[in-house]
Design a protein that fits this description.
It is built from 9 helices and 9 strands. By secondary structure, it is of the alpha/beta class. It starts with 5 loop residues before the first strand and ends in an 11-residue tail after the last helix.
């Protein structure tokens, strides 16, 4: 039996998806890219699944598209620009990237697809495909400027230089830095914390943040209000009641 290229594990509301091609630094060939799309869609469809962690096996995150497959004459399909691409659009639920080692070329795009990026000291980001004439088709040119700003994004896109963990934290590309080798455990712990929050308000706030890029400020604020209505009806009063009864006073939160 062949080793699966994408491994999915579930622990309660947390789904961990691992790119499992360590011999290729978890580069995605077409089969693995389709399998990643299937895993993300299954997470999206599962009602009990609340938060996903996306990581790579063997000390690397993802080295992008498999250039050996591409160099052999097999073209890769656009991961963001095609209807069946794994990175086409944000999911309706949070995804956390646990990044160790290289997240480069298309692997950078995989990391940018996630809402939060947790790194250790080994993490390295970069558009390394600049050297081989392979363009981005994974959403990087769209998502990277929104996360780090246009100037920093242009520096990364045009030079293809490596960005280490500390610089990634400094420019907002990475969210948190943790001890070496603990990114998956830390990401899963954070995922459990997020999964424990009232879900309607959390997901509506997340959706509003994503949709605001396509709207002017007034329209974005109206949309925020529209998205908040369900949570206001179903979660806000009970949450406020818990606070009124003493929960969370003086910054003492359970989560």
């Amino acid at each position: 039996m062949s080793t699966p290229k994408i491994v999915v594990e579930t622990q309660g509301p947390v789904t961990t998806i691992t790119i499992n091609r360590p011999q290729a630094k978890n580069a995605l060939d077409n089969e693995a890219a389709h399998a990643l799309a299937d895993a993300l869609h299954a997470f999206e469809a599962a009602p009990e699944a609340r938060v996903a962690v996306l990581t790579g096996a063997g000390g690397a995150f993802c080295a992008g598209a498999d250039l050996k497959e591409l160099g052999g004459g097999t073209d890769y399909f656009p991961w963001a620009g095609s209807d069946d691409g794994p990175l086409r659009a944000p999911l309706s639920k949070p995804v956390i990237a646990a990044v160790e080692g290289h997240a480069c070329a298309g692997g950078l795009g995989v990391a940018l697809f996630c809402d939060i990026r947790i790194v250790d000291e080994t993490a390295t980001f970069g558009v390394f495909s600049r050297r081989w004439g392979v363009p981005m088709s994974d959403g990087t040119t769209v998502r990277l400027p929104r996360i780090v700003g246009q100037g920093r994004a242009m520096d990364m896109l045009l030079t293809g230089r490596a960005i280490g963990a500390d610089e990634a934290i400094a420019i907002g590309l990475a969210t948190r830095k943790v001890a070496r080798g603990t990114t998956r455990a830390e990401a899963e712990q954070l995922a459990r914390q997020i999964a424990g929050f009232p879900p309607i308000a959390m997901t509506s706030d997340r959706q509003s943040a994503y949709e605001s890029f396509d709207r002017d400020q007034a329209s974005a604020i109206r949309r925020e209000m529209e998205l908040s209505l369900d949570a206001r009806r179903k979660e806000s009063q009970s949450g406020a009641a818990r606070f009124a009864q003493g929960e969370g006073r003086h910054g003492a939160f359970k989560k």
